[in-house]
Every structure is written in C-alpha cells, then in structure tokens.
Amino acid sequence: MRIRAVFFARLRRELGMEELTLDVPDGADVRAVAEQLGREHGLNLRGCMVAVNETYARPEHLLQAGDEVAFLPPVAGGAPDAGEDTHCRVTADALSLSAADAFLVRPECGAQAYFVGTVRSPNQGQVVEYIDYEAFAPMAEKVMREAAALARERHGELRVWLEHRTGRLAPAVASIVIGVASPHRRAALEACDFLIEHLKIELPVWKHEVDGRGEHWVPGTAGHDTL
Question: Which BP terms does GO give this entry (predicted)?
C-alpha cells in the first residue's frame, strides 16, 4: 500500500525534502515505516514523535493506504477560528497584542490575562542573532483548538486567543501570544498558565537558533510516545 510521509525541522534538512511517497507492506505499523525510512534513506528517527492524519499516534498504530504519516522531532517549547469564542492561528505575520485585546475584551468578560513570548538574547550565555521557527501548521492549529477546549473543561466560560509565529525572528520579537478572557480574574489567570504549559509540550513547533556558537536546533520535549 502507498502512504505519504512528511518531515519537519532537522529531519527535513537531513533528508533534503519535505515529503515523499512510500510503498509499504499492507498492515504495516508506524514503527515498520520508521525502520524502512532508516534502511532506505538513512534517517535516524529514534526519539521522534509521529502523527497520523494530524493526530499523535503510537509506534504500533496500524496504517491504512493513503495515510499521511508525519515524523516530528521533540518540539521546542491562518486557519478558520475554532468558534466564535476561540481564535487559533499559525502565521508568518507579525503578532499583535492589540488584535488579541480586541477579540477578548467583551462586556461579559471582567478579566483578561495575556502571555507574550519573545526571542531571548543572550540565551545560555550566548548572543542570539535570530531563531528560525518551523511548524506543522495544520496540526499545530488543531492542537491549539484542543487546548482551548481543555482549558474550558477546567476553568469554565472563556474566550481564547492563540497565535504562533513562524519564520526568522530577531531578539525581542514575539513568537507566541496567548490570551484568555473570563468573567472572573482567577479563571483567566489559571487558564492562561495552563495553556502556556500545555502548548510548550504539545505544539509541533521547532526552533533553529543562530548564536555565538553557530547554528543548532533548540532541544525539545517529546510529550507523546516516540520511536
């Protein structure tokens, strides 16, 4: 059967392409495909996570013809909105706190909480020249929508704004904006904190940093089963 394999961050650079079509045995699982890629293309996929059709999957997940299998290195900590109370977007455009504010401030929401993450320099004693951010955008936006739903399960009625930047960003430029509005202060603050910590692990975004040591991938976290 034939499947489509896609690659991100260091894997894409090592392979020299973003995707390829593979013929694999009927009934193959994710681990078998990873082993085949190792044999045929020399890719070391140990420690990588996998998504099948934009959903995280276990190595023993059985594949079907036509599946998209995305191989994701551990993640470094525009689509339609998920609903009138949620805005989720991965974009190469500059992020705007005022746009988040316009979306979140409503008469029924007495509290707004915000987190803005920017490129830091120096980092670990090195002056950072820039960071290239790479994302699996369709899956990242899906993860954002799921995170907003989880935040509502924990903290009740919320408006949620989630945007992540891609491309080359210089120090002090915003890479992520998280905003939460709620009728009450405590829910907004706690939901914003939950989203920060959840997305740091779950969001398929990678950082390629250039600093005084040269260029390198920023070490990430594998929040799901790996190969």
Answer: Mo-molybdopterin cofactor biosynthetic process
Cβ partners under 8 Å of residue 52, min gap 6: 30, 61, 63, 67, 68, 69, 70
Task: Please give the sequence-ordered ranges of beta strands (E in DSSP) within 151-211, or none if there are none.
Answer: 159-165, 167-169, 174-182, 205-211
- Which one, of 196, 199, 215, 195, lies nearest residue 207 by Cα? 215
Query: Alpha-carbon distance 121 to 49, whole Å?
Result: 29
What are the residues whose beta carbons fall under 8 Å from the beta carbon of 151, sequence distance 6 or more? Answer: 158, 160, 180, 191, 194, 195
| β pairing state of 174-182 and 111-118 | antiparallel
Residue pair 137/166 in contact (Cβ under 8 Å)? The answer is: yes
Among left, alpha and beta (phi > 0; psi -120 to 50; other), residue 45 is: alpha
Residue 198 CB neighbours (<10 A): 18
Over its length of 227 residues, how does the chain's per-residue pLDDT go in tens digits? 999 999 999 899 889 999 999 999 999 999 999 999 999 998 889 889 999 999 999 999 999 999 999 999 887 654 444 458 999 999 999 999 999 999 999 999 999 999 999 999 999 999 999 999 999 999 999 999 999 999 999 999 999 999 999 999 999 999 999 999 999 999 999 999 999 999 999 999 999 999 999 999 998 877 788 88
